[in-house]
């Protein structure tokens, strides 16, 4: 059996992070996803769904550091349902997404590390670098040095 959800959307508010008595961080925020479709009169319509996101420990720290209201985010997690009593004692129920993966999809400044959560641009790919050789005719039969990358394997 699988309980997995993947969402890409915009944050409706800054993540609210709190620390429990045992030191564990937990955070909550809302995420809006949109669905676009044409109605019967051939006009485009947009339906927005709001999702309650819950993040724990390292994911809460990442959300606090990398996300803010309006941020575009990729979320993976599971659907949970819970009941609680509101301030008037009325029993309520809610559906939450407990996130196991939280990534910002906002464009990062070029000066920042491309592995910090954004996608690298084509300019960051060492295989796309042009190797210039001032001597068009090689003086020997050796192949040019391969482009070195910083991968550990």
What does it look like?
The chain is mainly beta and 153 residues long. The protein has a single domain, classed as OB fold (Dihydrolipoamide Acetyltransferase, E2P) (Beta Barrel), CATH 2.40.50.140. It is built from 1 helix and 6 strands, in the order E-E-E-E-H-E-E. The chain has a 5-stranded mixed beta barrel with strand order 1-3-4-6-5. A hairpin with a 5-residue loop joins strand 2 and strand 3. The radius of gyration is 23 Å and the shape is globular. The two termini are 36 Å apart.
Count up the domains.
1
Q: How many strands, which pairing sense, and closed or not: the largest β-sheet?
A: 5 strands, mixed, barrel
The ordered string of helix (H) and strand (E) elements is EEEEHEE
Shape: globular
Outline the low-pLDDT stretches.
Answer: 110-122, 124-146
CATH homologous superfamily grouping? Nucleic acid-binding proteins
Features:
153 residues, mainly beta, 7% helix, 6 strands, OB fold (Dihydrolipoamide Acetyltransferase, E2P)
């Amino acid at each position: 059996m699988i309980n997995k959800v993947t969402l890409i959307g915009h944050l409706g508010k800054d993540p609210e992070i709190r620390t429990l008595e045992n030191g564990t961080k937990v955070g909550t925020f809302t995420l809006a996803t949109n669905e676009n479709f044409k109605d019967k009169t051939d006009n485009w319509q947009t339906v927005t769904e709001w999702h309650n996101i819950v993040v724990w420990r390292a994911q809460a720290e990442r959300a606090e550091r990398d996300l803010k209201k309006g941020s575009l985010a990729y979320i993976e997690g599971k659907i949970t349902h819970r009941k609680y009593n509101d301030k008037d004692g009325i029993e309520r129920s809610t559906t939450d997404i407990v996130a196991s993966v939280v990534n910002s999809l906002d464009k990062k400044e070029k000066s920042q590390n491309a592995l910090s959560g954004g996608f690298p641009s084509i300019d960051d790919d060492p295989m796309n670098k042009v190797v210039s050789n001032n001597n068009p005719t090689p003086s020997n039969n050796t192949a040019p040095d391969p482009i070195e990358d910083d991968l550990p394997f």
